[in-house]
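One thing: could you explain this record?
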Amino acid sequence: MVDTMALLPPFSRAARTPRTAPRRPAAPPAPATGPPVGGLGLPADDDVLLDVPDDRLGPALVAAAQGEHGPACALLATTRQQADWERRDRYVRRLAAFARSRDEWFLRWSADAPRDVDLLTVAAQLAVDRAWPSPARAELLREVSPLITAAARGDDRDPVPWRIALDHARGAGAGHKYFEELWSAAVRRAPHHYGCHVAALRYLGAAWQGAHQACLDFADRAAQDAPAASLVQALPARAVLAYLTDDCGPELPRQRLDAAADRAVALSARFPESDPAPASLRNQVMFVLVRLARWQDAFTQARLIGPYATSFPWDRLSDDPLGLFLTTRDEVRAACLAPLSDHPRSERGPHAHSGEH
C-alpha cells in the first residue's frame, strides 16, 4: 500500500494566481417538447426531497425531535461497534446539525451520560459547527480542542474524531506540521476513510489557493490506493468540483477531469438506484458531469438520484439548493431530448468556475 503520508505533498505554494479568461460551459439547449420528467424515469419535482436521512438515521431524528436521545445513542454505538466509520461520520454530522436547532434531546443525553464516547463525538462536532460561522472562528475553535481530545480518547479505533480534528485545524489556521501529525493519526486508524480525505483535500485547497493540480494529484493517489468500493474513489471528482467552481489557478487537462468523473460514475453504479445513502455522492457527480457538458452521463446520475437531492454541492451556488437541483435536472433532460445537432460541442464540453473550494 502507498505510504499515506506521501499523499500529502510538501506544504509550500506561491501566491494565488488568477486564471485568465476562464471558460464558461456551453448553455444547454432550450427545453424540448417531449415526455414529462416522470416519463423519463425521473420523479416529479414535487416528489423530490432535500437531505432525506436513511432508514437508520430517520428514526433517531424523529425521536430526537421528541426530546429522546436513546435511539441516537444506540445508532452511534452500533456504528462504532461495527467499525462502520463512513456511516458513523455521516450520522455524527447530521445529529450535530440537528442539535444546533433543537438541542433538548442532546442536553438530556449530556446530563444522563456526560462521558459517553458517542455523545463526546457529537459534542465535538457541534462545537466546531457552532464556532465556524463566527468572525472569531480561530479563537473559538481553540477552546474546542479539549472536546475533540476527549472524543478521540473514547475509542482509539475511531477515525471520526480525527476527521473533526482535521476540520478544526483548517478552521483554526493550524500549521502544516501539526496538520500532518493529525493526518498521520487519522489514516493509521482508517487508511481509506472518506471524511478524513475530504478534510485533507479541503485543507490543501485552503492552504494552496488555486493549486488544483496538487489537490487532484493528492486525490488521484488516494483513489488509486483505495478499494474499488471505497468512497475515496469519489475524491478526485470532489477535487474537480472544487476546480470547476474556482476562478484561480492554471487550467487542468480535460482528460484528467473526465478520468476523475469516470471513477465517481463507476462508484455510483455500485449502489442501488434511488437510495438516500449515496445521494450526496451522486449529487456531486451530477454537478461535475453537468459542468463538463456530459449530458447523458448526468442524466443517468439524475435517474439514480431519484427523489434524493442534497444541499451540497448546489448550496455553493444558490440559497435554494433544491431549486437549483431541479432547474439543473430540467436542463439535463432538455439536453438529452434535443436533436444531436442542438447539443453543445460534445458531451465533454468546456467547464466553468465560480464559488469556492
Summary: The first strand starts at residue 49 and ends at 50. Residues 55-192 form one domain.
